[in-house]
Amino acid sequence: MNQQAIFHFPVSGTPVQCERYGEGHINQTYLVTTDSGARYILQRLSNVAFHDIPGLMDNIIRVTRHIAAKTKEEDGTLHFLSADNGKTYYTDEDGYSWRCYRFVDALCIQAPETEEDFYQSAVAFGTFQDQLRDFPAETLKETIPNFHNTPDRYRKFREALQKDACRRAGGVEKEIAFYLEREEAGGALQRMLEAGELPLRVTHNDTKLNNVLLDKTTRKALCVIDLDTVMPGLAAYDFGDSIRFGAATGSEDEKNLRKVTIDLNLYRVFAKGFLTSCPGLTGAERASLPLGAKLMTLECGLRFLTDYLDGDHYFGTAYPGQNLDRARSHIKLVRDMEKKWDEMERIIREI
Ligand code: ADP
Ligand code: GN1
Ligand code: MG
Q1: What's this model's pTM, rounded to 2 decimal places?
Q2: 46 lines ligand 1 (CB under 6 A)
Q3: Which CATH architecture has domain 4-102?
Q4: What is the per-residue pLDDT for 1?
Q5: Whose CA is nearest to atom 13 of ligand 1?
Q6: For ligand 1, is residue 31 a contact (CB within 6 Å)?
Q7: pLDDT tens, position by position, 298-350
Q8: How far is the CA of 316 from the centre of ligand 2 (A)?
Q9: Smallest Cα–Cα separation from 238: which of 186, 289, 185?
Q10: Which of the listed residues 125, 296, 315 should we mutate to test ligand 2's pocket, taking the one with most ligand atoms within 8 A of CB?
Q11: Closest-lying ligand to the alpha carbon of 229?
């Protein structure tokens, strides 16, 4: 067994197999099988992204317990095992933290195969937010401070640009200009939050389609996973990040930009699922959803470009230049949303 961390968790049987699993950009995820056939997810948490593991795990345990108390479904949320140190994570000799939780034998997809798949992901994230409407948001730790504070993301981008640690800025002047031209517009949600126009909710903040599990047989929403970024936030963040990833016609790192557009039909489908399962949004929140889609795309693209300039330390990459491909596909998506803006607003008004 190559990942010794598993021996610190009370799994059923003896671990016999441990293989890399899933397609996340942040943690190292393994599927562990024991001689009794039991399966678990073992995860090594990123120490680049997360600096307060006790706080992060405390958030997750409290949020999953809150949800578990509201659902009859066993797989309606994640279930974590306590390590032999009595904590919900184990820290190895190199300082990495590991956690172990029940494997859910479910579908996890990178792109919707049908409209219904995307609708179901909207139900999962909408229900998640609805289940947490009575959770005291202010008691959650901010696991990554200023995570969706776009002006702060611009500040970090300027820092990376000034440092230009890998001497890459000269080769990407057009991309840099695109993001800088939108700095003022990029601060809109943050300004609305600060002005008290939008309420703070408990949000997931990383609502990619591959952070939802679907039932293998019925393809209905089972649960939301990847809870590391559950923090106080805006409904528009969760709506927007789902659109960025799932309503795009190309993958996140698609090189052929002609393939990358925003599919307004999928956008409408998601909006219906989200608003139906989370009916308590205010009028101002509903109206902010298109802005969420545009700004989460802009912000994520800016983060990819920042990481490219920094030398690719934050997001996992499979080849050199992948972060730049991601930043470029997001430029194309933002441009397409700018063209389709009136329609994006109309769709939300008409639901
Ligand atoms: P990352 O932060 O790196 O994205 P995730 O928590 O999203 O990490 O896990 C990565 C992948 O592992 C997911 O996209 C999913 O495919 C799979 N996964 C995670 N948790 C479970 C689970 N409980 N059951 C089944 N698959 C899971
Ligand atoms: C990361 O962990 P994962 O792969 O679901 C990132 C998100 C980005 C996303 C882009 C903690 O999500 O914020 O939107 O990559 N998660 C963190 O694909 O930074
Ligand atoms: Mg993930």
Answers
A1: 0.96
A2: no
A3: 2-Layer Sandwich (3.30)
A4: 66
A5: 22
A6: no
A7: 999 999 999 999 999 999 999 999 999 999 999 999 999 999 999 999 999 99
A8: 10
A9: 289
A10: 315
A11: 2
Instruction: Provide the pLDDT confidence category of residue 2 given band limits of 50, 70 and 90.
Output: confident
Q: Where in the chain is the domain with CATH 3.90.1200.10?
A: 115-350
Report the atom number in ligand 2 closest to the C-alpha of 304. 10
What is the radius of gyration, based on Cα positions, of the chain? 20
Interval 97-138: pLDDT, tens: 999 999 999 999 999 999 999 999 999 999 999 999 999 999
Distance 226 CA to ligand 3 centre (A): 5
Kindly state the helix (H) or strand (E) to which residue 246 belongs, with its residue range.
helix 235-246
Alpha-carbon span 129 to 137, nearest angstrom: 11
53 close to 29: Cβ distance less than 8 angstroms: no
Of 108, 205, 208, the residue with max ligand 2 atoms within 8 A of its CB, to mutate for a pocket test, comes to 208
Using pLDDT thresholds of 50, 70 and 90, give the confidence band for residue 50.
Answer: very high
**Main-chain phi, psi angles of 173, to 5 degrees:** -65, -40
- CATH fold, domain 115-350, is Aminoglycoside 3'-phosphotransferase; Chain: A, domain 2 (3.90.1200)
pLDDT tens readout for residues 139-169? 999 999 999 999 999 999 999 999 999 999 9
SS3 content of the chain, % helix, strand, coil (to 5): 50, 15, 40
Q: How many CA atoms lie within 13 A of 303 on its CB side?
A: 21
Mean pLDDT calculated for residue range 275-296? 98
Across the chain, what does the average pLDDT equal?
Answer: 97
User: Ligand 1: does its nearest atom lie under 6 Å from the Cβ of 290?
Assistant: no
Nearest ligand to the C-alpha of residue 315? 2
Domain with CATH 3.30.200.20 in the chain: 4-102
